[in-house]
Predict the 3D structure of the following.
Amino acid sequence: MVTRGVSSGTAATREPGSSTLRSAAIAWRLATVVDVVTETPRARTLVLDVPGWPGHRAGQHVDVRLTADDGYQAERSYSIASAPEDARIALTVQRLDDGEVSPYLTDVLRGGDRLELRGPIGGYFVWGVALGGPLFLVAGGSGIVPLMAMLRHRAAVLTANSDARHGVPTRLLYSSRRWEDVFYRAELAPLAEDDETLEVALTLTHEAPPGWTGFRRLIDRRMLAEVAWPPAERPKVFVCGPTPLVEAVATALVELGHDPALVKTERFGPTGGSGSAA
Amino acid sequence: MTEPFVSRGFRGRGRPGATAARLPPGQYETPDFPVLSAGPTPRTPLATWDFLFRGADGPAARWTWDEFQALPHETVNTDIHCVTKWSKLDTIWEGVSLDTLLAEAATRGVKSAPYVLAVSDGGYTTNLPLADVAGGKAWVAVKYQGVPLTPEHGGPARLLVPHLYFWKSAKWVRQLRFMEHDEAGFWESFGYHNYGDPWREQRYSGDP
């Protein structure tokens, strides 16, 4: 067996050959924080005014870049929570206690501050009313953010054209630890109440308030069988959340007979301890 | 924007350690191994797994799992860089060098071409210049840190092209196809860079 050290520090010495279509680079823009909204004890929504924003599709994200006064920079990606129809861009950021960027965004940034970002980014985990339904959205924790952009986009279009809503019947299954960890909870309930073609099912995995009638466990195959559209209806499925949830949900949906090609996933977070390939 | 905007009150903490020079621009080091993929994880039994190297037209070389395992394996210690900003240093892989597969394919009459498309279970594809998979730069990996690759991390076999962003290291790889002309793969057709050199921060289409 040969042991071969490979330095990833060696930049490629060769230009790529013929290339596919080249487009303009996605420019860095200086956004202004218009508002900071507390969503949960650990999550805040940054409402941003972004001059020159080219528009986005629900499900896309932006790259945020922070620069310290000595020039040190850190970049991270955050999903866009706002609908394409909204005038301002909203990012909902959950604070990771050992994070480098998220505590700055949630705890330091305030109205009037400015923030560098570029986007929109990502062309696969996206949905628009024109793509039709039925739509099945599954979220775990902060994985609700890009799905909320889809729900807000859907609501914006259907408010303008209520005849269209029967074309996109939608179900959301959203898992959180506790009630106070549910993002957008003040918005989700009226959204579903005002629209007979939108159903929202919540599950609380750690603790539920008195009188809770929703689910009380991790999302499992039985719950998906109960909540999801039947596979024969060929729902368009978007799953976003921590890796274990996304793995479990996507696997169970395929076992239930959903076409893997219709199940789009976005995962975040580690899979386990250091060095684990599990 | 020419001058970077200084973020009020931001200090950051990633500054120079022994490993800072190994991090491409915009990347941070993680001890974890995050999982990213666009759809459900495919699970192919080893009994039906095979690996194909296809010519642009004409014959293909094919290996069963056992035949593939019988090829010479190499151990590779390398840093990997994901376009989502994390880098993981000193990862250890075991697999078959693309040089071995290229040589084997050539002896079986597979005609070479300037580009390669990797095709995976689940339909994922990624495109690479031949020059970036030849000459000790790429492997088909079957083990990570000494143990067989799990399905979440691309098992039973994934491409390993560590000098490019990690989406080029296609999980669940089953086929390499020579192409006379470059053709965008999956992420490359959804707004990501066609080449993906982390040291030039070629994340998205249009990046220099």
Observations:
- Confidence is low (pLDDT under 50) at residues 1-20, 270-278 of chain A.
